[in-house]
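Support request, please re-run this one:
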Amino acid sequence: MTTDSATVPRPGKRERLVNAARELVYLKGISGTSLALIADAADVPVGNVYYYFKTKDDIVGAVVHLYEEQLRALIAELERRHRSPRARLKGFVNALAERAVEAAEQYGPQYGCPYGTLSTELAKKPDVPDELAASLMRIQLDWAEEQFRAMGRRDARDLAYELLAAYQGSAVLTATLGLAELMTRQARRLQRWIDDKGEDR
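Re-run finished. Output below.
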């Protein structure tokens, strides 16, 4: 039995649009990315984009949700792999640094952390809900706090802030100075910092 290909969306079209939007927003920013550019990069006719997304904000929201899924998958993998909260935190820093290095090798070191750059852009847009702008940071902060709390730290939230601020600061320096190796060095320093955070006495 045959189907009318004109009435059945080609499998994977939505995923291609979201992935194209993810890459374009990372490289060009939200304001520099149009639905026409996304459609072209995804090899989808512009008119078909509206079947999946009514506005550019909708597709940017889908990119945020894709990143959320990536973070949750990473966290789940770390929790499967490591029994110790300290080892999970060190694995988290290492994984983020590896992804940053891979992105730098593919696109150049000037683009920074995709989670941080997108969150910063969204926070500047007055029409974006606060929960969407902050969601990628909150996932990381809440999970890091849980790990530090499991290590017996009463200052777990402050340590989570410090960890994420150190990583994001390293990403900004890597981008602005163009030093791809800086992220790897800073990741090692952060892992030693985590090792130094014993239980509260």
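The radius of gyration is 19 Å. The domain at 1-54 is CATH 1.10.10.60 (Arc Repressor Mutant, subunit A).
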